[in-house]
Fold:
Amino acid sequence: MASSVLVENVSKVFHTREGGLLFRGKKRVVEALKNVSFEVREGEVFGLLGPNGAGKTTTIKILSTLLLPDSGDAWVNGYHVVKEANKVRESIGVSLYSDRGFYWKLSGRENLMYFARLYHLERSYAKSRIDYLLKLLDLESDADRLVEEYSTGMKSKLNIARALLQDPPVLFLDEPTIGLDPTAARKVREVIMELRGEGKTVLLTTHNMYEAELLCDRVAIISKGRVIAIGTPGELKSKVSEHKVIEVELAGFDEGLLEMVKQGRGVIGAAARIRDPVSGLAELRIVYDGDFALKDVLGMLLSSRGRLISVKSLEPTLEDVFVTMTGERLEAPS
Ligand SMILES: Nc1ncnc2c1ncn2[C@@H]1O[C@H](COP(=O)(O)OP(=O)(O)OP(=O)(O)O)[C@@H](O)[C@H]1O
Ligand SMILES: [Mg+2]
Structure:
C-alpha cells in the first residue's frame, strides 16, 4: 500500500526565553521532536497519542508546512514538505487545535464561503460543498448565526468543516474532539470514520487513548519528542495484555513512594497522576506480574505516610503501554 505521509528522522528544537514582554528571563532550548519517523498508509486513520508537550502539534505543523524541521525529511502525498510546500498544501486539509481563526462578525456559512473563495473554489461548487459540510457536522441550524455566538464545540466543528472544504485526500486533525461534549465528540468521530470509508487518509492527534483505540488503524505513541511505539491498538496492547493493573487513589503521595513502588518485586511499571499537590492526592497506576507483587505493593502503600483511599483492579489498556515504557501517565481521558 502506498504511503500518504512519510516522516524520516525529523527533529525540531525551539530556542526561547523564559518570561514575557516585561521580564526577559534566561534562554531555554526545547527539543520538541527527536528523530521522529513514521509512515501513514493511504486510506489509514493514524493517531499520534501522547501527553501534553509530547510534540504532536509540532509534527502536524511540520507536515502541513507551517513550521520547518531542523533536520530530517517528510513527504505528504509524495511531495517533500520543505522543497514542494505548495504541492503539499494543495493536497491537505488541516484543523489545528490552536487555530480557531474565524471572522466573528460573519456567520458560520459566510466564514466557510470566505475560505472557499480564498482556496479558489468555484462559487456554485463551494455553495453545495458548504451545505454538505454543514449538514455532515450537524451545524445546519447554527449556520447562519454569527461565529461570535458559537460555543467552543461549534467552532471546533466549523474548523473541521473548513479543513474539508477542498475535499483533500489527506487530513491532519489536531485534537479533533478536545473540549467537545459527548454528543459533538461522537459526531466528529463518526465523520472521521466516514472519511476513512471514502478512502481519505487521516492523521490525528489525541491524548485520549480510548479515542485512539476507537478510531485509529494504527497509533504512534509519542513521549517527549520521541516515537516510542507504533502499531495497531491490538498490537500495542498485546505488549501489556499478560500483565495485571491496579489503580490506587491515595492522599499524601510523594515521589519517594513512587520510586519505591517501581522497585517492587514483579512491578513492570508505575506512574502517578497528581490530582491535588497540596494534599498530595494522587492516582497511581501500577502494572505488575504475579499475586506476590500485589501483596508487596499494597504492603508498601499501607506502611507509607500516604492514606489509601481506593484500589481498583483493571484490564490493561494503551495507557499501560505508556506507563511501562515511560514511567508517566497519559492525561485523564476527556
Ligand atoms: N513556538 C514554540 N516556541 C517554543 N516552544 C514551543 C513552541 N511550540 C511548541 N513548543 C514546545 O515544544 C514541545 C512540544 O509541543 P507541542 O505543542 O508539539 O506538544 P503537543 O504534543 O501538541 O502537546 P499538547 O497535548 O499540550 O497539545 C513543548 O515542550 C512545547 O512547549
Ligand atoms: Mg498539541
